[in-house]
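Box S2. Input/output pair 1.
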Amino acid sequence: MAAPAMVTAASIAAAVRAGTTKAADLVEQHLAAIAAREPEIHAFNLVLADEARAHAARIDALAAEGNDPGPLAGVTVALKDNMCTRGIPTTCSSKILAGWKPPYDATVVRTLQDAGAIVVGKTNLDEFAMGSSTENSAFGPTRNPHDISRVPGGSSGGSAAAVAAGFSHFSLGSDTGGSIRQPAALCGVVGVKPTYGYVSRYGLVAFASSLDQIGPFANSVEDAALVLDVIGGHDPHDSTSIPQPHPSLVGAIQQGVEGLRIGRIADLPAGADPDVQARLDLAFETLQAAGATIVDVEVPAFSFGLTAYYLIAPAEASSNLARYDGVRYGLRVEAADTDSMYGATRTAGFGDEVKRRIMLGTYALSAGYYDAYYGKALKVRRLIHDDFERAYQQADVLLTPTSPSVAFKFGAKGDNPFAMYLCDTYTIPTNLAGHPGMSVPFGTGAEGLPVGVQVLAGTLQEPTMFRVAAALERSMK
């Protein structure tokens, strides 16, 4: 069966709330799409067919009784498998969490379900969100729906592929250094990393706590705006959650870009393929034609983002992942004594990329090296933040490529970790600054594969970012 037709999340929810469309029928359409293509794509670690059907029945019953099931009534969602779901396995695509079922829901999971959204499954990812291709999963790779010989990006590759393949109307991912935006670009969908603290991280299994942020994948800018309007906001369970209300993003997207200043980063690091650069150049022309002004800005520390990130993120990961030791939950490899059990469990439970980052982070934090590596990286992070702040005094948003290239073949970068890390050249600096960023599909490049343009904005400037993204999207219709 073909994937369900493209309609907006708002129109779906309106029809379900009015009783003219059944949530149960929508769920069956998506489950049929999953059955048809999931064996070749492997977007999911777990499909929750029975749970989705039961939730749909409850929503239809509420609507039939004249009650409001919520702003996302009947809209299907896939969750990256690093978000806690009560009584349902949450693996982070790692052997070390085998058999673990969280005793609580992540805040975003509970919020979405309260809004009427229906979870259809938990999606595949690079183990503990460490990767740019979803080749590092303990459960095998996810494939790009546009060309199954190519990667979907990562680490949220399963979530991006689920939306691109029509398995769910939207999905959630997490973005630590580009893990929403880069797979969104490679799969041809919208992907948003909001301002750090915009969405609660309570119940998100931590990779790098000062960088991780949850955000949506969607087929349209409008759908992404609606989802963020639902999941954004203060959460007392998350000490880093911003304690203030957020303006409506759905209300912002129709405002257009006339009078906005669009920043072109004059000292942006080279590396984008010609086909990707051509689409970015066209994006600037398109926005200028729509009434925006193009201004050149400089962000000198942008080029330092990659090196700073690969000290800060592994350092935080080495601390966060120390809890996986075979004692409290997940995998346990029996051994002669406790120390041997720790070593055997972590050796068997973690994949190569996770081990690489734990060792790198532990080294950077060790006595005698802390100031030289981790401490210096934190200073560079401040430089990056300050350079962005100066740029946003001259421009309302900045435009860059999302990914340096279109989706690449499986195995093309797996033997060279540094080549893989370069996939996040354009996305990482925004995580370090804590600012929002999003990828918008903007045509195709080599071999007809999707290209994403990245829109960046200052702290809590999501409304302006979405205005620009919506203008780019409209120009493609």
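Box S3. Input/output pair 2.
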Amino acid sequence: MAPVVRIIGAGLAGCEAAWQLARRGAAVELFEMRPHRMTEAHTSGELAELVCSNSFRSLALTAPAGLLKEEMRRLDSLVVRVADGHRVPAGSALAVDRERFSRALSRAMQSLPEVRLIREEVTELPPDVVIVATGPLTSPSLSRHLASLLGSDHLYFYDAISPIVTAESIDMAVAFRGSRYEREADDYINCPLTQPEYDRFVNEVLAADKVPTRSFERFVPFEGCMPIEEMARRGRETLAFGPMKSVGLADPRTRKSPYAVVQLRQENHEGTLYNMVGFQTKMTYPEQKRVFSLIPGLEKAEFVRLGSLHRNTFIDSPRHLNPTLQWRQNPNVFFAGQITGVEGYVESAATGIVAGINASRWLEGAAPVVPPETTAVGALLRYITDKARTGFQPMNVNFGLLPALATPLRGKARKELMASRALAAMEAFALRVAEEIGCARGPG
């Protein structure tokens, strides 16, 4: 009987790993517990459901997420291709209609003859080659099993979800379209606040009732997904210099920059839904409706989804994983996605690519590979698997992870040269792994 790779979790990382294995001719069993067992954050049984945001972040090569996506294209990323095909307006960012995106990725998985989709919960690691891609919402049963195998407790932090409103409920007599620094673009809707309105809003955010933290879970907020009330506690102007900054925007009614703005980003292809950018929150549902109605333009907003809070689970990867994403105690076991301690959609999918490539090579008896450290993917893997790292916390891709340039540069010039170096290294790496396996490129 031909060997089978079993993938636990059909999120972004799991689907990407399954695709990389299938295009190399490997048999895959892809396990997904939803919809039979739902999580605190998911609402459907579609694969790779996006729960926090519909944005894959910047497309610019001088932005870390933009560089990472371009590297993933070199590796024939299914996730990026499907995202490109279901893009919605978001300025220089790649944002998607999340429902169409998930449906399309589900269909892609189900169309692969090498992949068998199994809708059931996995509570223990199966034998032989397995990829654990259960994500930040790993089921309690499997979490306990993994904790017993790894010999240490899992680490926890909370991830807060931004609210979504209907477009027709936004008062466009007050709100206006525009993008920061992009005078010709109008992809975002902006709700302007004066200083008194901003001060009142901050007061109410701080005073609002919050969802309590349970005694057995500790709150360690990730900087890239900080709830607005946590930011407000750091200082009254933190929001005004963060998600509510008004720089680069002018209110057409006054022709002046507002004191602060709340930006809304298109959520679906039809443009009927918008999400509140950077407005992750722990406030209770009634308090969210009350406090957010204080925002000019959102006084009568219809919320189709309010913010919520869920637990993210990740392992202490520097203690347990090699850069190939194999468990040091058992190289038949690979980990991928946010459970490894990478943070973000593209980062999760990128680790799925590497895990899929290496699981295929492992089956073939070839040595697993690691992208060069000068690439965004390679630098991210180096960060999460550095044995010397203590106090490990999740990380988005960033230029600070990449090795320094031989020529000292600053600002945009530094980022451009780092991106050029990374893509050249990734192109050579992608060509080598494709030729060694002998796989063909997927459909464009």
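Caption for Box S3: The domain at 160-309 is CATH 2.40.30.260 (Elongation Factor Tu (Ef-tu); domain 3). The chain has two domains: 4-154+315-437, 160-309.
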